[in-house]
Amino acid sequence: MDYVSTRGSAPSLDFAGATLAGLASDGGLYVPREWPSFSTAEIAAMAGLPYAELAQRIMQPFVGDSLTPEKLLELTTAAYGRFAHKAVTPLEQFDEQHWLLELFHGPTLAFKDVALQLLGLLFEEFLGRGDQNLTIVGATSGDTGSAAIDAVAGRAKVDIFMLHPKGRVSDVQRRQMTTVLAPNVHNIAIEDATFDDAQAIVKRMFNDAAMTSRFNIGAVNSINWARLMAQVVYYFAAGLQLGAPHRPVAFSVPTGNFGDVFAGYVAAKMGLPIAKLIVATNVNDILHRALSTGDYSQGTVTPTAAPSMDIQVSSNFERLLFDVGGRDGLALAAQMHGFEASKAMQLTNAQREGAASLFASRRADTDDMSQAIRWAWENCAELIDPHTAIGLHAARVADLPRDVPIVTLATAHPAKFPDAVERATGQRPELPARVGDLFDREERCVDLPGDYDAIAEYVAAHAVPKI
Ligand SMILES: *Cc1c(COP(=O)(O)O)cnc(C)c1O
């Protein structure tokens, strides 16, 4: 499989190249040249497969010749063997219509582990074939950072620099990053910054020739295609359990950077019957506005109890706009440059109509979120985290026919955000034993101002050059 940039002028790459590249050299994101698809009979034959085998079947067409089926299965078996539940992503029933897909059984308690545990192994495999070093630079609102650090800590030929907005991640999230003391892990807290500021610094570094000529800069954010690919698998896993390919299923997805829900779009392109993808946002609702009115204009970020969704620029939305807008990279490049200059753009008719056929969107405020946490506790004896609650709220007001099952993606373990859960239910969720003595461990992190040059200088001083 060949990967092309959404902005039409970067060279195309194979899967291994796209995995190591991160952002394309024209500022775009890599997408497969075409969507592989499965027939109804092929999908039906996947029912009941163990997760690691299902993952290999779904991902093989994207991986192409970069990994043999045996090698890919070896990697998925290793990645998903680290999950604390045999089903990897178990499905729970709430009531006749509502289901919960638990994606938080990995080492750092959020769905990011599903993709990043595999990505860490892919980096190791592909870097092992040459003599290149990789410098990962990433921005996190909390969960990507901890999951990426867990996935690459101590691995050869990789350094990771993880930027987070100082004071805007939860204590559990911060400690899951800063207590990893492996020498290849570099945590940077950016002062007076939001996640979008941190992400903008990272994007600038990918386009900074002074940095890219010295270092192989790689990505662990969902701009990295391999992450989205790994997330497609659990849409199939849930769909198959609820009757796919013979019965359509809807998904409600707590959304920030649009990576997780874009993976659902890919699953639909591959033949999984999906009735609706509900994009659930908190009050930082640029995506809800874009999908409901066509107006994609950046507001200011309001900090909420669901910090991983406190985002006003959703990187992966560009992938959708490219695909539903006719795959015209140069036209999209012009549209995105306009957005970067003015912080606003209108979707084209083709983009709006293309999105409307599969996507719906809902916005949840703080009360909606708390009520959803309380509903899950009182009706189903289930503690859910604030991000998941936004998804559940959106699912419950979605107005879909009663016979369409709606699966809410549970994106984080409730103990990652205990304060909001306790406020809503009076119950304080406990950290699972697998995270160990997180609150007693030493932390290591540097504070830097939100100034591009200071951060580039820090990375350059601590990273290992290309070869
Ligand atoms: C990252 C994250 C999200 C948002 O996912 P995107 O792929 O960025 O849309 C939602 N919930 C939690 C808990 C997360 O960590």
UniProtKB/TrEMBL annotation:
Cofactor(s) needed by this chain: pyridoxal 5'-phosphate
Catalytic activity: O-phospho-L-homoserine + H2O = L-threonine + phosphate
Pathway assigned to this chain's UniProt record: Amino-acid biosynthesis; L-threonine biosynthesis; L-threonine from L-aspartate: step 5/5
The protein's enzyme class: lyase
SUPFAM superfamilies linked: Tryptophan synthase beta subunit-like PLP-dependent enzymes (SSF53686)
InterPro entries, sorted: Ser/Thr_deHydtase_PyrdxlP-BS, Thr_synth_N, Thr_synth_N_sf, Thr_synthase-like, Threonine_Synthase, TrpB-like_PALP, TrpB-like_PALP_sf
Native organism: Novosphingobium anseongense
Family, per entry: Belongs to the threonine synthase family.
NCBIfam families noted in UniProt: thrC (TIGR00260)
Protein name: Threonine synthase
Keyword Amino-acid biosynthesis in record: yes
